[in-house]
# Entry
Amino acid sequence: MKQKIFAVVATSENRAIGHKGWLPWPEMKCDYERLMTLAYHKPAVMGRLSYESPNQFLSNNQNLIITSHKIDDLPDNCTTVSSIEEALKYYENEPEICILGGQRVFESFMPYLTHIYLTLIHTVAKADAYFPEISNKDWHLINQESFYAGEGNPLDYEFLEYQKVKE
# Structure
């Protein structure tokens, strides 16, 4: 069985994912709920800056933090690794791995991803971190749901699900 390696990410229309350690748009309840549904019980991988972010999300499963820095007082379900390769080796027997960002982690994992669960926030955001472009030749859009702004969600948004084109 092939391992499912999937990213869970929210982006703006210009692929922004972060600005100075924060999300570059108002808090969206829908995105947090989707993140919980998709990632809460899965082993997860993130970079140090995502771990230290005020918007930090930790799976209740094992969390790997890719860093070359020492992190003090890690929770029991967190471990540091120094590379993408070390993270893949650590989770080699897991049927699914959730990739949570940030930019460099998403960029590094793109060749290994099998699925992308993207919340597209309908705004153009000022940012210093971006999600890589999703190429139509490498990815198929397999599901799309559109929603209007409403209670807890100040902006229109879409849930998009991509699957990597079979090689």
